[in-house]
Amino acid sequence: MSAAAPNVVLSVSGIGKTYAQPVLSGIDLSLVRGEVLALTGENGAGKSTLSKIIGGLETATVGEMHYQGQAYRPVSRAAAEALGVRMVMQELNLLPTLSVAENLFLDNLPSRAGWIDRKRLREAAVHAMAQVGLEAIDPDTLVGELGIGHQQMVEIARNLIGDCHVLILDEPTAMLTSREVEMLFEQIARLQARGVAIVYISHRLEELARVAQRIAVLRDGQMVCVDDMRRYDSEQLVNLMVGRELGEHIDLGARHIGDPVLAVKNLSRAGRVHDVSFEVRKGEIFGISGLIGAGRTELLRLIFGADAADSGHVEVGVPLRKAAIRSPADAVAHGIALITEDRKGEGLLLSQSISANIALGNMPAISAAGVVHGGAERQLAQRQIQAMHIRSSSPDQLVSQLSGGNQQKVVIGRWLERDCSVLLFDEPTRGIDVGAKFDIYALLGELTRQGKALVVVSSDLRELMLICDRIGVLSAGRLIDTFERDHWTQDQLLAAAFAGYQKRDALVSDTAPRNLA
């Protein structure tokens, strides 16, 4: 680092990384004190790999780095953190069986006479949590009892403890509510004022425009742009990321919407879902919208038999027949598939290969007498790699080495081999880039042209309006209304999303005891 650049806290020069094939090459970048640098690009472009090299989780194959004027080559994440380089990853680094306070100070628990000083630990945790707006949470709460959004904020708070000169945030808002996002942005502004250099990785381009001063765009492992954020609008950034233009509309192709193939009848689970009924037809995409906590995921789990319903039932087939679904195995036997929102926790075996993951749901097709035929397994995987355009070196590549978008394609590919007639998608594009999103949309269109019935849950209202034939809106666990394409507006959908809570609050107000004095 030269004396001519006194505000540069960290620089990388000629950085490259090769696994089975090159994933990064010739990367030059500098981080400036008190500045937010937005790092974006398609899934598989190399964003996470570059971040892990800076954060000490990976070692560069070629190139060099300098940090605060000295050569920098951390041998571990702990070594980088000791120097003040912190990274908040998409995969949370928390222990669910320990308390919030214990997770925050796990590497530096306050002690007295050889025992943990619980009072000091609690006081320190309260202070750390207040910095990210978590004052309402008891520090003694087990992390496993928190929602994923609050866990994300605990992870951020953990990385802000002590000296921090460089902070890398990898998709920090993917699991956060709008209120938590605002708290995060406030904290980012405070960190900037303290001179912290921040790398903000996200596919949400509107967020980048709001928080970042510079933009760095990776494409196919190479840096194609480092410039002033104000010079680019969302469309220009998308073109840089994917190397082609993507429109705001999508043509799902000629489709025939036929008879109902799925019917949900008065499905309920206490405190979660209340008396929900709807039908989905062959060749149709039925969207489910609603606020976080409205019961969207819970509804899909009831349909799939992952949770037991208190009342109601599901009908499938043409003509519709009542299906006895008491478990996911029953649902699969009736031709229903669920692509979960938690692909890493529930949808994939990250330590296994692409072949093994796709084979999971298709054992009868590749085995005999309890023995898996390796050749058949590889052929099955190769078929889906080609059909799904999964970027990989081979079917033997570990799923953990794939980008988020390609991991999602592996999950979907597994179910496509089953040829299910009803597919339930829970947040199918969460955490993947805009190019991969349009790949997924095109796939959904192909499935409907094959006569599949699709149910899609998404927190992105624009996404549902783009791809769905109808949208049902859940609010406080109830299906408030269902809108047909060309007969909805964003305002109508949002109003319906709040309606159930307003009605519930009014009922609570009416039944609350009144002070008659």
Commentary on this structure:
The protein has 517 residues and is of the alpha/beta class. It has two domains: 8-242, Rossmann fold; 260-508, Rossmann fold (3-Layer(aba) Sandwich). Helices cover 35% and strands 25% of the residues. It is built from 18 helices and 24 strands. The strands form six sheets. Strands 6-9-10-3-11-12 form a six-stranded mixed β-sheet, with helices on both faces.
List keywords for this structure.
517 residues; alpha/beta; Rossmann fold; 2 domains; six-stranded mixed beta sheet; 18 helices; 24 strands; globular
Mean pLDDT: 85
> How large a portion of the residues is in β-strands, by DSSP E?
25-35%
CATH architecture of the largest domain: 3-Layer(aba) Sandwich
Oligomeric composition of the shown chains: single chain
- The rounded Rg comes to 25 Å
Integer count of domains: 2
Portion of residues in helices? 25-40%
Q: Please report the number of helical segments.
A: 18
Structural class category: alpha/beta
Query: In the CATH hierarchy, what is the class of the largest domain?
Result: Alpha Beta
Low-confidence runs (pLDDT<50, min 5 residues)?
Answer: 507-517
Main sheet: strand order:
6-9-10-3-11-12
**Major sheet, described briefly?**
6 strands, mixed
Number of extended strands: 24
Assign the CATH topology of the largest domain: Rossmann fold
Q: Kindly report the name of the CATH homologous superfamily of the largest domain.
A: P-loop containing nucleotide triphosphate hydrolases
Overall 3D geometry? Answer: globular
* Distance between the amino and carboxyl termini: 74 Å
